[in-house]
TrEMBL record:
Gene3D superfamilies: Macrophage Migration Inhibitory Factor. It comes from Gregarina niphandrodes (Septate eugregarine). Belongs to the MIF family. SUPFAM superfamilies: Tautomerase/MIF. It comes from the Eukaryota. The keyword Glycoprotein does not apply. This is L-dopachrome isomerase. It is found in: Secreted. The lineage of its organism: Eukaryota, Sar, Alveolata, Apicomplexa, Conoidasida. It catalyses: 3-phenylpyruvate = enol-phenylpyruvate; L-dopachrome = 5,6-dihydroxyindole-2-carboxylate.
Length: 115
């Protein structure tokens, strides 16, 4: 149910499947949800700019979860995602935005049903 998607202008040849696996593990750790329900995706090569600069690495991310979001929790998630993105993709923390979506279980589908 927790899902993190990072879109970036970093080239596809710099992104590995292992990075997406690590992102899923990070989501499990910061939300406290079982890894078996967590998903991570990194979408490279997206034409984007930040502050009018499209040449320097930048990103935008969305973290969706049923609960485990809000206030101080989002600060923890933000730091973890920014650190991960900086370490793996070379995107400086001041070159990305992160959106947090606290979804109702009835609005999240899984296995042919909803939560």
């Amino acid at each position: 149910m927790p899902y993190c998607r990072i879109e970036t202008n970093v080239a596809a040849d710099k992104v590995t499947p292992q990075m997406a696996e690590e992102l899923g593990k990070l989501v499990a750790k910061t939300t406290g949800k079982p890894l078996s329900y967590c998903a991570g995706a990194i979408v490279p090569g997206v034409p984007m700019s930040f502050g009018g600069d499209a040449a320097t690495p930048c990103a935008q991310a969305v973290l969706m979860s049923i609960g485990c979001l809000g206030g101080d929790l989002n600060k923890r998630h933000s730091k973890a995602i920014a650190d991960f993105t900086n370490k793996t993709l070379g995107v400086a923390p001041d070159r990305m935005y992160i959106q947090f979506v606290d979804a109702a279980g009835s609005n999240v589908g899984f296995n042919g049903n909803t939560f």
